């Protein structure tokens, strides 16, 4: 999706891909297939790039520091990216900045996790410090009897972070972009609907969020981007309590699933602004084109030939926008998304849900 933006700007994109069949490798013409954890592979690849950036957070921090020491422009840099890679480091830094966070503790073993739960009250949340995504590496621990579960098969160098259970009413996503020169823009705050740890839908702007609450969330995300010296996109995932207050759940320093609505719903998409930021070009307008925009993820279902379902989707809704990722359809896998916009939220949401459900083979209720 960032490659699509680069074409019109005349910017050449090279890709280091994990395999020849990953989505980006099917559209980018200059592809190197290799291991992003292998220093030699990454150094050789980066040597041919003016700037390197990422679509996930898992490239080892030490390797990125070596690239910077060799004069390679890494954006976001490792000193920023480590806060999206390691939840323990993130919690320490955000707490030091005064950002709202859950009560947390790094726990060394099941006894320490049980002690945390006894102090804070059950249930508690346990997370792996590194490597978790889409609900993986996260456990809701109901009692001390379950405290051993997160430690089973724990990889070397990975810690368990225990957090208080936050009784939130919904999740919000505050997206901002920051350039090396310090320019920054904030997108409207979205409500993110999760199911089984996976984002299934976003509604922008978040319904019922007051102007003051929205501005506070945007300012929080901008302050985190500034303090951590993020370059590119930053997604600050927030949990909102019943009283309207928020706590930071996760950080992502890349174009984010909760920002896919921006491709068709804003004047400048997150992919466009991420590319501009890493090249230190002036950032574009993040404002919305319509009153409401709804994005619904297409998860792998009973429809294997997704393009065959487009006839119905487009015939029913001429304003519908669809992005298919070229991935093999597997149950529950994100294989695309649909976006709808308009003035009536119920109507916009129903259009998006119908199209996504049709692409997943789910009949209308």
What separation lies between the terminal Cα atoms?
Answer: 32 Å
CATH fold-level label of the largest domain: D-amino Acid Aminotransferase, Chain A, domain 1
Radius of gyration: 21 Å
Written as H for each helix and E for each strand, in order along the chain, the element string is HEEHEHEHHEHEEEEEEEHEEHHEHEEH
The number of domains is 3
How many strands, which pairing sense, and closed or not: the largest β-sheet?
9 strands, antiparallel
Write down the overall geometry: globular
CATH class of the largest domain: Alpha Beta
Mean of the pLDDT scores? 96
Going by CATH, the homologous superfamily of the largest domain would be ATP-grasp fold, B domain
State the CATH architecture of the largest domain. 2-Layer Sandwich
Residue share in β-strands: 25-35%
Helix share of residues? Answer: 25-40%
Q: Uncertain segments of ≥5 residues (pLDDT<50)?
A: none
Counting DSSP E segments of at least 2 residues, the number of strands comes to 17
Query: Would you tell me the structural class of the helices and strands?
Result: alpha+beta
What count of helical segments does DSSP give? 11
Which key terms come to mind for this protein?
365 residues; alpha+beta; Rossmann fold; Dna Ligase, domain 1; D-amino Acid Aminotransferase, Chain A, domain 1; 3 domains; nine-stranded antiparallel sheet; four-stranded antiparallel sheet; 11 helices
